[in-house]
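User: Assemble these into one structure.

Assistant: Restating your components, then the assembled model:
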Amino acid sequence: MKKRQLGPCVTFFPQPTTLVSTVSSEGLVDIMTASWAGIVSKTPPTIAVSLNKNRKTYENICQTGNFVVNMVPASLAVEADYCGLRSGRDDDKLMVTGLSTAPAHEVEAPLIEECPLNVECRRVQELELGEYRLVLGEIVQIHAADEAFGENGQIDTRTFDPLVYLGGIREYWNLGNKSADAYRDGKKLFPSEE
Amino acid sequence: MKKRQLGPCVTFFPQPTTLVSTVSSEGLVDIMTASWAGIVSKTPPTIAVSLNKNRKTYENICQTGNFVVNMVPASLAVEADYCGLRSGRDDDKLMVTGLSTAPAHEVEAPLIEECPLNVECRRVQELELGEYRLVLGEIVQIHAADEAFGENGQIDTRTFDPLVYLGGIREYWNLGNKSADAYRDGKKLFPSEE
């Protein structure tokens, strides 16, 4: 495959589009779009979110130690993009987007009602990376849209319809089709079964 | 939206499917599937990959300090699943999958030829998370499929066709359609333009 070299830059891998919801010490809710987010450990369940150190969201997390990572459905792409462009210091983003909140169970930060998956987190570690802070949150509770669960308990991905962000080229995409089942389809290549 | 509580667990967000390629101190190449991977800083360009501390890949990175994160196209879903299920201590994964390598420019670890994007990394920091190690790599060179670039330099996402992994429910998906342009479509909601 012929390739060209791009040098050291921030390139794209498919990343989740999330809204991080927090509350300030004065009780004001802020929401911010973050795509540098992902599960990083099972022991214990931990999520990592990278935030610019000047963001209001980072300030709020420093004050409360709590945050919620909300999965953005494809239908909210414009709202999510807006929440990444503006600061909670200037706008009331809930008012502008029309998004609503619900109380979390374990942490001092609200769930975003319209997001089909909400992950309650308590900050446990932090790493300095230039202008960014990689905040590690232990997952303490998860809320998932009830309608996504079938009678057998299986989850229907299309009900969540998660929005995928491609960073380097700055595009939001939805999912297409299932390509394979993990921990199963790869067994076709097991040498012992050849 | 009615929701159910799942407790603290590892849930799914759309994550990239990547193959991490490394070389041991004896010069043996290993490739391993990793989906807990993502860009975490622009200053400098940094990628984070979470690996179980018992993996051969982690051992290799400890020895050389180098690794390459390769984007998996949807056409290689079965090969990628296989590379996550087996250990480089037991199988020659390149031989089983038929994947081939090309030399990197800056690091001691090969590129996977069939992957449309290859990110050369030097380990700069590491974080302990239970059984996992979050390895932070400074991006030193990127190789991207030449055919993905249009005459105006724009990148066509469909040429890359990145495979998305949904962890909690263990499914691989491809991308569907573009939902929005980032840093642009959100401006429709700017209060000053209402």
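Residues 14-193 of chain B form a domain with the Pnp Oxidase; Chain A fold (CATH 2.30.110.10).
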